[in-house]
Amino acid sequence: MPKVSFLVRPESGQGVRLDVFLARQVPDFTRSQFQRFVDKGLVKVNGEDRKSGVKLRAGDRVEADIDIPEPAPAKAEPKESAEEGRKLKALELVVETVEALFDERDNRHEVPRPLNAALAFGS
User: Fold this and answer.
1) Are the C-beta atoms of 14 and 56 separated by less than 8 Å?
2) Per the structure, how many domains does the chain have?
3) Assuming Cys at both sites, which of 11, 25, 37, 84 could form a disulfide with 80, CB separation 3.0 to 4.6 Å?
């Protein structure tokens, strides 16, 4: 099994339980899984077996003989079906048509009607 090693830093692990520290460092496993790894002797602190509840100190070296899973590959976007493609093209055509109608309406110039002099001057 590959060996992973961590150095305990004051800001990240001093005073933290061994199993909690490992669960924070390797989120692929739970704290209880790390407890089992410690009980099986797969985890060492400064080269020695320790209990999972031991509080770590700054400068401690934690080594574990565990397989860390590779990150899962990103899922590919599903390809659209032919039916979805036809629906999308139809929707695009509707949007283009509506946009053209609004453009046509906005470009129309209305000729102002002559004002009735009586209405304009309040007579």
Assistant:
1) yes
2) 1
3) 84
| pLDDT band with cut points at 50, 70 and 90 for residue 14 | confident
Distance between CA atoms of residues 41 and 29, nearest Å: 16
Look at residue 40 and tell me if it is in a domain: yes
Q: What is the pTM of this model?
A: 0.55
Q: 10 Å Cβ neighbour count for 12? A: 14
Residue 102 lies in a domain: no
- Is there a domain that residue 73 lies in? no
Q: Are 66 and 4 in contact (CB under 8 A)?
A: yes
Question: Can you name the residues that pair with 64 across neighbouring β-strands?
Answer: 4, 43
Listed range (5-9, 10-14, 15-19) with the worst mean pLDDT: 10-14
3-7 and 61-65 beta bridge pairing:
antiparallel
- For residue 48, what is the domain's CATH number? 3.10.290.10
